[in-house]
Specification:
Number of helices: 14
CATH architecture of the largest domain: 3-Layer(aba) Sandwich
Strand order of the largest sheet: 2-5-8-1-9
CATH class of the largest domain: Alpha Beta
Distance between the termini: 51 Å
Shape: globular
Largest sheet: 5 strands, parallel
Low-confidence stretches: none
């Protein structure tokens, strides 16, 4: 059994199924598809998070990763892609997301004789369905409510969609599945309607803390100073408390920002690193001051 799979304490049936899928993909996938396979780099605060997500995908369920910004949802999606050796198409949602961004669009092309043709360029949804890839929908609750119903047939037992641009009915190939991510309560987001949410198995992805966070910082940053690493872990804990108390925005406790701060602190004073990587990303002056005040208790004044 794959070392990563045995590490997550999967049932024998699920582990064998994931291994079989990975072997099949390794023999089938073209080089351009292999380039779309995610990299293992997610460290879980609880190994059950990975085991449950893998199990749900192996059973053909859609997975909704729910957690604060910077908690590692995209990295988890990439790890899942890696474990299944499954290429992954990605959609970054916004209020401007429309049917063309999901399904594809028509464009004018020219053949060798100079004759023009109207050609359909597939989008991430149609490509993932036709090729049996994973589809990752990031910040799905940033999309307009009227856009998402396009995906209803994709997400339920039918696994089909009608493409209005080509008038064809697309059925998902074997291996297709959907992973989505959501930041609840984030600026610009709207609650998912129940019909959409009921099409997913929900996996909570909390912030990484303590020894697991220190391990991640050791493995994924340039910082090697043990004392500074421990201080950044403590800073992260305090920032998370502030987020939970509603005193600073979620991005103030982002693990992604913390990694940036650790990298910068290898070459800059830690307080400057915290200002550039964490505090200055916040819009509210009071929140920036709160972050820097906490950081001063560990690193001193600038």
């Amino acid at each position: 059994m794959h070392a990563l799979l045995s590490h997550y304490h999967l049932t024998e049936t699920i582990a064998e199924q994931v291994e079989a899928t990975a072997r099949f993909n390794k023999n089938k996938r073209l080089p351009e598809e292999v380039a779309l396979i995610g990299k293992p780099g997610y460290t879980a605060p609880d190994e059950a998070i990975i085991a449950d997500a893998v199990t749900a995908l192996a059973l053909g369920k859609n997975v909704l990763l729910k957690g604060p910004t910077g908690s590692g949802k995209t990295r988890l999606a990439e790890l899942l892609s890696s474990l299944f050796y499954q290429p992954m198409q990605m959609i970054n949602c916004s209020v401007d997301l429309d049917a063309e961004a999901l399904l594809g669009y028509k464009t004018l092309t020219y053949d060798e004789s100079g004759k023009s043709h109207i050609t359909f360029v597939p989008g991430p949804v149609t490509t993932a369905m036709q090729k049996g890839h994973f589809l990752y929908i990031d910040e799905i609750n940033m999309a307009k409510a009227e856009t998402l119903p396009i995906l209803n047939g994709v997400l339920d037992y039918r696994r089909t969609i009608h493409n209005p641009f080509t008038a064809e009915r697309i059925e998902a190939a074997a291996g297709f599945n959907v992973i989505a991510a959501i930041n609840e309560g984030y600026v610009g987001t709207t609650p998912l309607n129940e019909a959409l949410k009921n099409r997913f198995v929900v996996i909570e992805v909390p912030y990484l803390q303590g020894a697991a966070l220190k391990q991640l910082l050791t493995e994924q940053t340039k910082l090697t100073d043990e004392r500074l690493l421990a201080q950044f872990v403590s800073l992260s804990r305090d920032l998370i408390f502030k987020v939970q108390d509603g005193q600073i925005a979620e991005e103030g406790a982002s693990i992604r920002s913390l990694i940036d701060a650790c990298d910068l602190s290898t070459f800059l004073p830690p307080m400057r690193a915290v200002r550039r990587a964490i505090a200055d990303k916040l819009e509210d002056e009071r929140e920036r001051v709160a972050v820097l005040t906490i950081a001063e208790t560990y690193f001193g004044k600038m």
